[in-house]
Amino acid sequence: xxxxxxxxxxxxxxxxxxPSFGARxxxxxxxxxxxxxxxxxxxxxxxxxxxxxxxxxxxxVKQLESALKSGALDPHQSRRYSTILNGLxxxxxxxxSHGYVYLxxxxxx
Length: 109
Hints:
There is one protein chain. By secondary structure, the protein is an alpha+beta fold. It contains 1 helix and 6 strands, in the order βββαβββ. Strands 1, 2, 3, 4, 5 and 6 form a 6-stranded antiparallel beta sheet that branches. It comes from Salmonella enterica subsp. enterica serovar Meleagridis.
């Protein structure tokens, strides 16, 4: 009888797009905190795409913090927020979670 193998958790917004990077950020007021153990890569990024992700991720976090301040992202309501930087698309939503922002980042087309 085959045993069920635990699968690695998929963090962030569920997305059929690969490659993608997903994460669940902890929200503290209008500040966001990244926890590496709440993030995952899906699919294969090129070395260039990974480099761009490393450079662009902090910029996305700053934009998401601004979106929380402006109300474009609402901790009490699910509302998708999207932005594009350096050839990468970031989609984020609180999913009405009162403390988390879920995001998926993938190459822009």
